[in-house]
Specification:
single chain; mainly alpha; Rossmann fold; 4 domains; 3-stranded antiparallel beta sheet; 13 strands; elongated
Length: 544
């Protein structure tokens, strides 16, 4: 068969040569060791944390290396594409502060010299290289239905080739030129498949930058390069796009290790130099049976990146947590550098964990508590209000009407050397400070203490005046406690608790219960100062 004639027959409208395309995308001028990487999401309306994890790794490696990071939308699967998904991707990346050197704007303008940065706009490029491979005898048209793997196709392979042969050659690879013409005359659609050079017995070795050298069975399948709509699946598009765009490092999940032999054969067939791969371990969860499983959008709401904004986790808290699971050195670095921005932390490809990370919401909460604890009262109020405006409009109205008051609420136990660390997301603040919105309707008081509680609050409320300091407040509580038979000397109470109604701590707890309904709360004097004397007096009287 004349392969060039076959290529011209299949692609009559493709006039550009592969060299024409290569000339349009000259090699990048890079410093030694400089990285060019990318984030290539599909616009399916959902950003999975595993995909974002890879984007964040690429972002950090390029940022630390002075490299180039570009955004490429892989929108070749129109069946999965969802309207508005592209906008959502840009919005989420923006919320997390992940910026790109090259990308396509939402109104379709390419920023950078290696676009288009949207795969559906690169269809002609893929067809040029598919035509090249057909002309070189490395690819062929397949007229089988788009049902690779269905019974009728498997049966053809079973009868056409030697039984137990490990090759998975497609039946259409041996069609004559006349047979191809006959198919085309009938209007039959065709895909383009790679004509694998392997027999099924070969093994190859390749290097992964995290896992080291990997040995695997070489590809022996006539894999699809172009579907019958002229659009390529990931392996072919990735090899072409990442080569033309000058990518030096591809960060992707370890699930792609098994398909790497296919990708390497495509690179070889195209005459391209393989790109370095960094296969990061997949983020997992612990299942009910104790085994690890991949984090899933079906079972785990935290798999969706919008979850963190809905709950009100600060973006920096999420990013710091991800740094914890990318590199174990981040946590000790943070302990030594509590006030530095996380962007000051650096790591290389070799520092990325090879151990499967387990996603832990408790650990994320701990990280988030530290991030929020560093915020001033004004910043916390601003962030809380911004969250409420998006996810809780009724709360937002209250926060706006009482701006000065709620700034004071947010400042409680905050502007001090060791701020309280109870809050880890904005969605919990309203419940956490529910007693600052209205007098408590419920109390955590123990049943056995109710009589003593009433007695103490009756006496304490009689001559209450707002104390001028925390020390003055404590002295007043001690005086009432002493008068009512409570131990103000804790040592004496420990030696003979039967001689007292309780100790000073119990007396303080009663006041706390009257004002907040809680046994534990931020500094009570600070709460009293924000509530004001009138409201405190009112609550004490209600508790009599």
């Amino acid at each position: 068969m004349n392969n060039q004639e076959l290529a011209d027959l299949l692609f009559p409208n493709v006039k550009l040569s592969a060299q024409d395309i290569l000339d349009k995308y000259p090699p990048r001028k890079l410093q030694k060791g400089q990285i060019v990487s990318r984030y290539a999401p599909s616009p399916t309306g959902f950003m999975h944390i595993g995909n974002f994890f890879q984007a964040f790794i690429s972002y950090n490696l390029c940022r630390m290396n002075g490299g180039t990071l570009f955004l490429r939308l892989e929108d070749t699967d129109d069946k999965r594409e969802i309207k508005g998904a592209k906008e959502l991707i840009y919005e989420l990346l923006g919320r997390f502060g992940i910026t790109f050197d090259e990308y396509q704007t939402l109104d379709g303008k390419d920023v950078g010299a290696y676009g288009p940065y949207v795969q559906s706009q690169r269809k002609e490029i893929y067809q040029v290289f598919a035509k090249k491979l057909v002309a070189e005898g490395k690819a062929f048209p397949c007229f089988c239905k788009r049902t690779e793997g269905k019974a009728e196709i498997l049966e053809q392979r079973k009868t056409k080739f030697i039984e137990n042969d490990e090759r998975e050659y497609d039946p259409c690879r041996d069609l004559t030129l006349e047979e191809v013409k006959a198919h085309l005359a009938k209007g039959d659609k065709f895909a383009i498949r790679l004509k694998t050079k392997n027999s099924g017995n070969e093994r190859i070795k390749f290097k992964d930058l995290i896992k080291g050298e990997i040995e695997a069975k070489a590809n022996a399948k006539d894999v699809i390069l172009l579907k019958d709509d002229g659009i390529p699946p990931y392996p072919f598009a990735h090899a072409i796009d990442d080569t033309l765009m000058g990518t030096t490092l591809v960060v992707r999940g370890e699930e792609y290790i098994s398909s790497t032999p296919v990708h390497l054969e495509i690179f070889e067939a195209l005459g391209f130099k393989p790109i370095s791969y960094c296969h990061n371990p997949l983020i997992c969860k612990i299942a009910e049976n104790g085994n690890r499983r991949k984090i899933s959008k079906r079972y785990d709401p935290e798999a969706n990146m919008i979850f963190y904004f809905e709950k009100g986790y600060p973006a920096d808290a999420v990013l710091e947590y991800l740094l914890n699971i990318i590199n174990s050195g981040f946590e000790p670095w943070r302990l030594k550098n509590p006030d530095l921005n996380w962007r000051k932390f650096t790591f290389g490809v070799n520092d990325i964990t090879a151990v499967t990370p387990v996603f832990d919401l408790v650990k994320l909460a701990d990280v988030s508590k530290n991030v929020i604890a560093k915020m001033s009262g004004e910043v916390l109020y601003k962030n809380w209000l911004a969250w409420a405006e998006e996810f809780n409009p009724e709360l937002a109205k209250k926060l706006k009407l009482g701006k000065e008051y709620f700034i004071k609420v947010c400042t409680i136990d905050r502007d001090k050397p060791k701020p309280r660390k109870d809050i880890y997301c904005y969605s919990m603040i309203e419940e956490y400070f529910d007693y600052m919105f209205e007098a408590p309707k419920k109390s955590e008081i123990d049943k056995a203490d109710k009589k003593l509680y009433k007695e103490f609050i009756n006496v304490y409320a009689e001559n209450f005046k707002m104390p001028a300091s925390n020390e003055e407040w404590f002295e007043e509580v001690k005086q009432v406690a002493d008068k009512l038979g409570y131990a103000i000397d804790n040592k004496a109470y420990k030696e003979h608790p039967e001689n007292y109604k309780g100790n000073t701590a119990k007396a303080c707890e009663f006041v706390r219960l009257a004002l907040t309904g809680r046994k534990n709360s931020p500094t009570l004097f600070d709460i009293m100062q924000v509530l004001g004397e009138e409201e405190v007096t009112k609550r004490l009287n209600l508790s009599k």
